[in-house]
Each structure stands twice: as C-alpha cells, then as structure tokens.
Specification:
It comes from Gouania willdenowi. This protein is an alpha/beta fold and 312 residues long. It contains eight helices and eight strands. Helices cover 28% and strands 18% of the residues. Helix 5 packs across helix 6 and helix 6 runs parallel beside helix 7. The C terminus is likely disordered. Bound molecules: S-adenosylmethionine.
Length: 312
C-alpha cells in the first residue's frame, strides 16, 4: 500500500494535512462551532487533553484571528508534551489533578474561562466495555476540572461514547448545565460510537463546591437511570452537525477530488513529538522485545495523528 492509500480512505485525514491541521479532529470542533457558534465572545478558553494540538490550533486561529488579539488566553493541557503553538500556553499535566485546575486559574490571573473543550480519550484497549468505562471516567474528570475553572453561563464541550451508561453521564451533566445536546459532526465516522456533548449555560447547584471525586461511576450508585420514566427520564437532544454536503467520514474518495486539480501527497503537519509507542519501537529495533508472534509494523511518522488509535 502506498502512502496515498490513507488519503483515499480518510478524506478528513488528507484535508487536515493539506490545510495544516495537526489532526483530523480539527474538523470536528469546526463543525461543532458551525452548529453551536461556540467561539462568540470567548476570551479565555481551555483545551483539555489537547495533544497533538489540532483543537488548540482551531482555538488559536478562531479566537486570536489575524490580529493576534492580546486579551485572548488559551491554555492547553495534556499528559503528553506538545509542539508549541502561537498564543497557546501549555501545561503538561493530568486533568484529574486539582493542581492542574489551579495552574489554569493562575494563568488566567484568577479569572474563570468562557469555554472549556475536551477531546480526551484513553488509549483504547479494543475491549468495548472497558473503553467505554474509561472514557466515561475521563469525561467526568473533565467535568470536575471544568467546575473549578468555568464561569457561570460558560460552555463545556466534550467527547462522549454513546455506550450503555450514557444516560447516567447526561444526568450528571444536566445537574450543571441548563442545556445539554449530544452532537455528531460529519467528520466523525458513523461507525464510531463517539459523539460530543455541548453543554451550555453553566449553572451549578446552589452551594456546590468543586471537587475531583467521581462517585457516580464507582459502582456505589443504585439508580438505574435507563429505567427512569416520565418526567424523571433524562432525555438529551441528538443533533447531527456539519454541512450535510460536507465530506462523509465513512466514504472513500478518489485522490483527484476535482477536475483539473491534480493530487499531491502532503506529509503530516506536526508528527507526534514523544509518542507513547516510541519506546516499543526502539525495543523492537534493538531486538529486545521478548516475543514476535503477530507481525506488527511500528507506526511511521506518517501515521494518522489522531492518537486515539480509533481514528473516529
Ligand atoms: C484524541 S487525543 C486529543 C486530540 C486533540 N484534541 C487534537 O485535536 O489534537 C486524546 C488525548 O487525551 C490525552 N489524555 C488522556 N488522559 C488524560 C489525562 N488524564 N490528562 C490529560 N490528558 C489526557 C492523551 O494524552 C491524548 O493526547
């Protein structure tokens, strides 16, 4: 398979390289903004789980614009190191830690954020129940840190897996936001259970004190939220977003997209700087991996930069 084959199979991967985005995920945030107008009036934004940085690129380009507005502050947090971006302050840290929340607030000089976005994903195991559970934990961690840093009436956008406990997550989000919508951008594959919750109008319950515990998913809750009926049922609207004439993430496209426009291969915009698989590749090269059962190919620098492994 040539290096252009992925360009054929994944139109958003190809467009991301051609438009200079670090990952195809950029289109998801752009399409969500198109539907929900996320960026109007935003001066302070937080990008949780930001590496390799395509959502931070979108924030930087949309909020700072061409004039590089000085009053705009953007903070990006990730466990992994990320190549620098103009106007984006990076914190290499864990979103489950209160110290990370304090660092964000320090950067905003005590002011709360207008917008928090989170495209967080754990390393997927391929065991769907485990992956859904960990993703849900990460979403709740993102919600927790958001309650420390978001201003009243602010907006929170986060990746969610629409698994069997999704109603439980919606019910948690509804406690803090008067409007919660689940949305699926065109650039997110239909075959993936990934979607995004767009939570607007942050209004925590009176007397709520932000903390970092996730009591709902520790098996100590005894309400089956899926069984609730009538007015007690948690119903969250579902909205497909992105122009319906936009490219379909599940389709294969020819390399020549338009008559007279010749295809040229574009390398990735920013290869990962310290990918988690680096050590494994080195061990393999040094012949230090104990077993060689399945033939596996170490990902090259050309691989999809959506580091989830799921390429949703
Ligand atoms: C899908 S990638 C994010 C892609 C990013 N939105 C972009 O557009 O480039 C998911 C990221 O979540 C990060 N992550 C997972 N758990 C985290 C945690 N507890 N704290 C901070 N980052 C975390 C991973 O390191 C990974 O970089």
């Amino acid at each position: 398979m040539g290096r252009s084959s992925k360009d054929k199979r994944d139109i958003y991967y190809r467009l991301a390289k051609e438009e200079g985005w670090r990952a195809r995920s950029a289109f998801k945030l752009l399409q969500l903004d198109h539907e929900f107008n996320l960026f109007t009036g935003v001066h302070r934004a937080v990008d949780l789980c930001a590496a390799p940085g395509s959502w931070s690129q979108v924030l930087s380009r949309k909020l700072r614009g061409k004039e590089e507005q000085q009053e705009v502050k953007i903070v990006a947090v990730d466990l992994q190191a990320m190549a620098p971006l103009p106007g984006v302050t990076q914190i290499q840290g864990d979103i489950t830690k209160v110290s990370t929340a304090q660092e964000i607030i320090r950067h905003f000089e005590g002011h709360p954020a207008d917008l928090v976005v989170c495209d967080g994903a754990p390393d997927v195991t391929g065991l769907h129940d485990v992956d859904e559970y960990i993703q849900a934990q990460l979403l709740l961690a993102a919600l927790n840190i958001t309650t420390h840093v978001l201003k009243p009436e602010g907006t929170f956008v986060a990746k969610i897996f629409r698994g069997k406990d999704v109603t439980l997550l919606y019910s948690q989000l509804k406690i803090f936001f008067s409007s919660v919508t689940c949305s699926k951008p065109r650039s997110s594959r239909n075959s993936s259970i990934e979607a995004f919750v767009v939570c607007q109008n942050y209004s925590p319950p009176a007397g709520y004190v932000p903390n970092m515990s996730n009591p709902l998913l520790d098996h100590s809750y005894d309400v089956d939220f899926n069984q609730l009926e009538g007015p007690n049922r948690v119903i969250v609207p579902f909205l497909a977003c992105g122009d319906l004439s936009a490219f379909d993430a599940d389709r294969t496209y020819p390399l020549q997209l338009a008559e007279g426009k010749e295809y040229q291969y574009t390398p990735p915009t920013q290869p990962p700087i310290h990918p988690p698989y680096q050590q494994a590749c080195q061990l393999r090269r040094d012949n230090q991996l104990s077993k060689e059962e399945a033939p596996s190919v170490c990902p090259s620098q050309d691989q999809d930069q959506d580091q989830t492994g799921t390429s949703s």
